[in-house]
Design brief:
140 residues; Arc Repressor Mutant, subunit A; two-stranded antiparallel ribbon; Diphtheria Toxin Repressor, domain 2; mainly alpha
Amino acid sequence: METTEGSRELHLTMSNEDYLECLVRIEEEEQAVDGVRSVDVASRLNVSKASVNKAVAALKAQGLVEQSHYGKILLTDRGREIGTAVWYRHRLLRTFLTRELGVDYDRADAEACMMEHALSEDTMARWLEYLERQGVALGA
């Protein structure tokens, strides 16, 4: 999953990737097929609703989300692809940190979030392939 390549093409920030990841997570967990409410994103990311609106405007300008005036946020296919890739990396890294290294779940979760953005595309791809070959199964 080549999230950073797509993110770099679009000049996405770590924050933008986090918003896409959050939207994917809410869609999956709450089966939100009709979109995600801004207030749910704000709550999940512990940010203000104004911050969500600003991020959504930026993502909308790049064709990654759609939203009618203050309506629910809908991921486009490209937005979902990038968000899903970020979420996949996050889960695999967190699983590695907790299961293989014994890192506390909350700390592993926070550190996986930083790592998913910081590594080069090549390094991340090699690491993920290695983990998959080792049979590291994804955690939720």
